Amino acid sequence: xxxxxxxxxxxxxxxxxxxxxxxxxxxxxxxxxxxxxxxxxxxxxxxxxxxxxxxxxxxxxxxxxxxxxxxxxxxxxxxxxxxxxxxxxxxxxxxxxxxxxxxxxxxxxxxxxxxxxxxxxxxxxxxxxxxxxxxxxxxxxxxxxxxxxxxxxxxxxxxxxxxxxxxxxxxxxxxxxxxxxxxxxxxxxxxxxxxxxxxxxxxxxxxxxxxxxxxxxxxxxxxxxxxxxxxxxxx
Amino acid sequence: xxxxxxxxxxxxxxxxxxxxxxxxxxxxxxxxxxxxxxxxxxxxxxxxxxxxxxxxxxxxxxxxxxxxxxxxxxx
Lengths: 235, 75
Known about the structure:
Number of helices of chain B: 4
Number of strands of chain B: 0
Structural class of chain B: mainly alpha
Shape of chain B: rod-shaped
Strand content of chain B: under 5%
Largest interface: A-B, 50 and 41 residues
Order of helices and strands of chain B: HHHH
Number of helices of chain A: 8
Number of domains of chain A: 1
Shape of chain A: globular
Strand content of chain A: under 5%
Helix content of chain B: over 70%
Oligomer: heterodimer
Number of domains of chain B: 1
Distance between the termini of chain B: 37 Å
Order of helices and strands of chain A: HHHHHHHH
Largest sheet of chain B: none
């Protein structure tokens, strides 16, 4: 099955897809921005500051999702010796890192009017900061190690260590008494968010997911061309 | 109406700076990745052009090489 994911076979798709993904992203993001900034209601307690949620929450969700995907790909790549999984994982990391930074910065901006402080060493915020550090270490590892087997091993270890932090991020608001509010959206139980706020949140999440797909495709194509450049050197 | 959207009951500065930071981050990441892509593609074209006819023919046998030279989207 994995042979269908070989770079030589999928390049014709990944090289043409970005322009369509970009177009779709612009459309969905424009709708999301209009909904989030104009049409969605203000909160009875937080007033208009609640609108920060429409960038903060999707960014946090996607950065967690990307790191989890990177971990699964790295583990499978290492066990089954599939180099392409490492390439996909490497191409996902930059957007995951940027989304993590967006979640931290917008969370900090939201904290000022809500809690009266830009930063608190709260369990949720600190664990998100730790995730950003794991992303950073992962990206640095790809830059400093030249030997392929070594970098595969090291990046797999980094993702395995980093993934331990993911459930801590998720449940930190339940396990500890934190400044950060508990989750308003639950898959297994009833969500406490009103549909007029849920709709823009989901639209913005779709837009953010499309943006990460766009960056992934562009980065993946660049990595493939880099490999082909090395191949030409060897000719 | 417009003043209300900008001011947002005094929360405008927080809301707009959050959205502004997000858009700026998107734009920066997009430009950095696009720049890397264009650089690598140009490097590939130069290297391909420097190959002698025999090596170029051998490299052209690979479909992926032909696609990089022809239709790689640089959006």
